[in-house]
Amino acid sequence: xxxPRATTRTIEHPDVAQVSLQQVLEALVDPVRxxxxxQLARAGEEMSCGTFDAPVSVSTLTxxxxxxxxxGVIRQYYVGTMKMNALRLEEMESRxxxxxxxxxAAAGTETRTALR
Length: 116
Fold this sequence. Notes:
This protein has five helices and three strands; from the N terminus they run H-H-E-H-E-E-H-H. By secondary structure, the chain is of the alpha+beta class.
């Protein structure tokens, strides 16, 4: 009996043109989600879910990825069994100019101040 053919897993992403500023701000208000976005921005490349440094469980981190994806901030896709995450910086910049860089800069300032 032939084995069933494997299908490609796809993940739904919103059109950034349909994302509201409220959605993006609500997604980025959480410090864990800001940390995910900061790590992606610093890396300058895609990162697999298991490579993030986060103070939460895997299931909670999955929830945070979903919130960021649904707000249009990140794009997720599979490479084999790994789920990869990419920052949608160019698309977000087109929709909300300067928003992500400003939030990342403020988050960096907040972190440096807390370390003093």
